[in-house]
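Supplementary Note 3. Input sequence used for the single-chain structure prediction.
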Amino acid sequence: MASGKWKTVASAGFGALLAVLAGSAFADDALKLTELSPNGADACFGRVYDAAHLKAHPKQKVARIFFYYGHDPVSRPNEEPTANSDSSYNAFVATTVRGAKAPEWAGGWCNHESEDGKTGPIHCGMDCDRTLASLKVDDKGRLILTDVQPDLYLDAGSEEELGAAEYDRQALGKEDDNFRLDPMPAATCKAEFARIDPIDPALGPPLRERLKPDQAFCYGRDYDAPIPTS
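The predicted structure, written as discrete structure tokens, is reproduced below.
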């Protein structure tokens, strides 16, 4: 096809594809950790630290932390699924450090460390054999997160690549561990994760709402034509 000509894409089954993607995560699978989710529903735990706590713990960078056990709260139904689909991840952590405008997040999977998979400590892993956290629920229903790694959001080997000073700046603080989180409604966690990449209201409703399932569509751009300035 010649350069500068319109390139078109049409798909009558676009809406149907979105429906498949939206429903792919945990379609028929109940969550297995009854300590976190006794009834198999999505579970949310979180905590927002006040100024007094942060002043008393100067080496703690995390000001807000939320742990979500359930459906993927980050991806959107109209986005291409990642290499690890929703069914591969069942745990998600979002933290906002002091002064940050939006959270960072990481996802993994949590299981009992036992042969039967039903007893023992709960360990949450990530890709590349990394640790997301270890979990325990106390007698008041609060979630205790331990083994949170300083390089939770960094690549393996980043300490050598970045150097000590830059690594310390980007990594979590020395007191960012042993978090005690309160149980919260699932909607609270979803709202927190929505802060990571908020939808721009100026763009209007998403295509999955504007297009009908059997409606063909076309988008294109002619790069030889002058670009409007307004």
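The longest strand covers residues 104-112. Residues 30-209 form one domain.
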